[in-house]
Amino acid sequence: MTSKIQFLLSMIIFGTIGVFVRYIDLSSSEIALVRGFIGSLFLTAVIFIMKKKISWAIVKVNAVVIVLSSIALGGNWIFFFEAIKHTTIANATLSYYFAPVIVLMLAPVVLKEKLSAKKIICIAVAMLGMLLIVGNGRVSTSGVDDLIGIGYGLLAAVLYASLMLLNKFIKNMDGLATTVLQLGTATILLVPYVFFTEGFGILEVSSSSIPFILILGIGHTGIGFLLFFSGMQKLKGQSIAALSYADPITSLVISIMILQEQTTFVQLLGGALLLGSTFVSENNSLQFRKRLKPVN
To answer: Tell me: the pLDDT tens digits for 245-264?
Structure first.
């Protein structure tokens, strides 16, 4: 399997997450917990089979950043799943993909990167696109619920951006090892959170939800991340940037064509402005490689 196909498949897999989350009869935090648990077990087994070694001395050096990024990862999933429950998959996905714009805005402060005129224009265009999505969408249930869903998507985007920025401070660790540690740590941290907020109704999950939980944990997390890292190793930054948009496009196609969720032309225009501006802003392949970490 070529690198491009591997990477493209990972993006398509990530793009189908919303459909499966809809059929899991658990709260968003419980879904995040079981996903992290199953995914971390799967990828730990992969690392063991591949005989990859993780230096615990390096892990110790990066411990604080790993914990903070794991908190961002768990929170990101919770808010994204909550967005899916309140609004259309298209709205949830597009608001979630505002994250790269947040990174652009924070990079001068956090990473001391220069904010060029080109990036300023891209930020402005992306914000216009987001306004079109929020202000001109036709709602599926009620206007309030739709806006709440978009709000959750934007909160997920903030945490996604935080995760991307924090990952820039993790030193001397490859992406797969970092992801396994983040998944495992996020799972451990989610256990007390779920216990005090939801109880452990997770143990009484309906039998109809179990297949979707397994697909989410093994397929979207384990296999999806494995294909992602296997594929991106031999790809150039520009190819990664272009192919990564298969994720939101897949979500939009599923939302509009398969689930037939109502989406207006203005929303689609806003989505095109948002996604297009983030694509144009990524003009440095090395920078993009370091920034891109899958959290879907």
So the answer is: 888 889 988 988 888 887 77
